[in-house]
Fold these 4 entries.
Entry 1:
Amino acid sequence: MTLDMSQQEAGLVRDRYVLGHSSEEYQRLQRQGQTFEAVTRRLFHAIGLRPGWTCLDVGCGPGETMRLMGEMVGPSGEVTGLDRDSNAGREAIARLQATGTSCYRFIEANMESADDIGGELFDFTFARLALLFTRDPVAVLRRMYRWTKPGGTVAVQDLYVRTINLYPRLEACSELLRVILETCARSGQDMEFAFKLPVYFVDAGIGAPDGTDIDLPMTSLEPFVAHHQALCRSLLPRAVELGVTTQERMQGVFRDLEQARADERQYSALWPAMIGVWKRKPMR
Ligand SMILES: C[S@@+](CC[C@H](N)C(=O)[O-])C[C@H]1O[C@@H](n2cnc3c(N)ncnc32)[C@H](O)[C@@H]1O
């Protein structure tokens, strides 16, 4: 840690967030946002996002879900991002405001401890790939429900990784996935989190979900490896720190994967399932 590191940066280092806060990670999240755009758009359509709605995106990162919300709620609506990483949030707002699609705002806050975020209640409160990183997702869901207007909707979308599979087996890919999953599990992430969401909604006092949406892509090797290799690069410092792998070992794995991607061989790759769950808050 350098001596001139700002308090905010020092706080982010201490938070032990497994994917880190580098500009490479922001770029990866933007690319990943494109991968998951269709399934998130489908969820927003099922929920019925409309022009004029006010939306809160919890754990917004570099703002890819905010962009989608903004397109659907339009200039008469408003989209607020919440994240404890203010660099990501500020960059997102600058980029999104330039699109002119809606009105965008950012709140710097920790979703695990922020009780007061200004008193505003939202028509739609959403979190994608964010609650998985919290110690107590039920407590965060309780907050999200509190931040939602009567008649508004709470929704969460996250990945369920137990579906991942590859045929035929490729040693380098198995090792890549082992490093990702072991690093996440040893950092305290519950790999079954998304599957438990309906129960967590009830535990948080929100009630049984009104709807669920599941997307399970199956592709060739190339996009599957590109996605997981980029994810692995972001969490590699943590993986090395935890002793899950070494930089040298992963360089070898990445080389073997490049080789496999260059081969013409057909593979069948089953992705993590994206699970979406939502519930409308009663009017009173
Ligand atoms: C994997 S990114 C997902 C970003 C975005 N929701 C998306 O789907 O592209 C997770 C985000 O959650 C944020 N985050 C993690 N824990 C947080 C916390 N306790 N409070 C606020 N933000 C948090 C991280 O800073 C990061 O921007």
Entry 2:
Amino acid sequence: MLTCPICHTALNLQGKTYTCQNRHSYDVAKDGYVNLHIVQHKNSHTAGDTPESVQARRRFLASGFYQPLRDKISSIINELSPNTVLDIGCGEGYYTSSLAQNDRQVIGLDIAKAAIIAAAKAHKTSPNGNISWVVGTGAVLPVADGSVDICTSFFSPLPKAQMLKVLRTDGLLLVATPAANHLYTMRERLFDTVNLHNPAKFVAELSPEFTLMDEWQIDAPMVLDRQNLSDLIDMTPYTYKAKLERKTALKACERFETAASFCVYLFKKSSQSS
Ligand SMILES: C[S@@+](CC[C@H](N)C(=O)[O-])C[C@H]1O[C@@H](n2cnc3c(N)ncnc32)[C@H](O)[C@@H]1O
Ligand SMILES: [Zn+2]
């Protein structure tokens, strides 16, 4: 399923090295991931999350507040029962690891090396599936054309043309994105005006190449302590968008109530696009 980022031919894994027919080779690092992000595809504007936000997200997600979303995603995927899944912008693999069941082949791909290292360390083995952790960009996916049953993107980029290329005919796309009121009370404290999220814009942007098949809303009320609250702020873009004094004041709260709210969309690759 993985392809060489230089010549785009198939990669074969022999021992701890992936090689293509043109003898480009990529070693699997000791932590268990492969770096397929080559310098030609690098762009400083898309370097992905910082190591600090990666660590904040890892701690926050480990506290279980987003478990309802993880469970929903896992049950949707299990019901669809794909053989191959590509998780684009997989971060530290919190959702990715729940997809690898029933001997499924899963690729977790992220542009942020720090995120992939954390993912590979935390999920070295998976009980019933096989996860390949890959540093790479959604802008040029190192994945064979037509080889993926389901692409997933949870709060991550949606590179439409690339997803269409790697998905098989009738392939599916599962997207999670903030619902209108996601973290409303927290954003009220950080900003003078709160702009509601507009999840439906993704449906419009992905159309007509992707057809919406189903949608769900998942709500998770949360009572956060100081550390949880600080991590939640730092794992979002609010950490650099909010004024420092507002952020500092909010981070001083010992207890804060808010609610996460997510939209999950299932799309099918439209027949005219294959
Ligand atoms: C908000 S985080 C979501 C991470 C994970 N899906 C989760 O929900 O825990 C977005 C992720 O997209 C990654 N990302 C940003 N641009 C990317 C690109 N061009 N290709 C691949 N990943 C990218 C970031 O590094 C980051 O890990
Ligand atoms: Zn090659």
Entry 3:
Amino acid sequence: MPRLPQPFEEITRPGYAAVHLAGLRVEGGRHEAVLSGICPRCEHPFQYVHPLTGFRVPRPSRSRDTYSVQVACVCAEEHPGRPDDDEGCGAYWILLLRWDGR
Ligand SMILES: [Zn+2]
Ligand SMILES: [Zn+2]
């Protein structure tokens, strides 16, 4: 049975980050990190490009660090009620990422 599309709603829940992180792939470039995962709300796959300006430049003495990144669902699927200039289903959450910055 097909599920009705979720209506667009700007919403966050405590469990979103953990669900997203579970299937997440992070690919780092020089200027951005590409987070590929499944939206925990609408369950559509999407890629979120995070510019690395918010990431601190890793120092040799400290090869790993944790960064918090605000991610918003930007899936390409339809969600009724979505503003023309918006993307995804409206869900957003904060990810804590371990970034080993190459
Ligand atoms: Zn969606
Ligand atoms: Zn979504």
Entry 4:
Amino acid sequence: MTKKRKSGGRSKGGKGSSDHVQCSNCGTIVPKDKAKRVTSRISLVEPSLARELRAAGTYIAAQTTLKLYCVSCAVHFGHVKVRAKSERRRKY
Ligand SMILES: [Zn+2]
């Protein structure tokens, strides 16, 4: 059968099986190596206040959160895009 991707969209290699995680948005079960990882910084201080504090020389710590998305949610949120056939990586 024809294969769309050599890796099946995963980074598993030849290891057989991998753990599963839940999508942060829809909750579907995705293989850990297929899930799209998105890290973002969340600041607890309002942007306008943060600007003032930074001007006064304050260090504002921000938490880093990791979110794992299934492929369809990652496409929906624009974290990954559908590439045209000509833009896809050459596989050999
Ligand atoms: Zn999802």
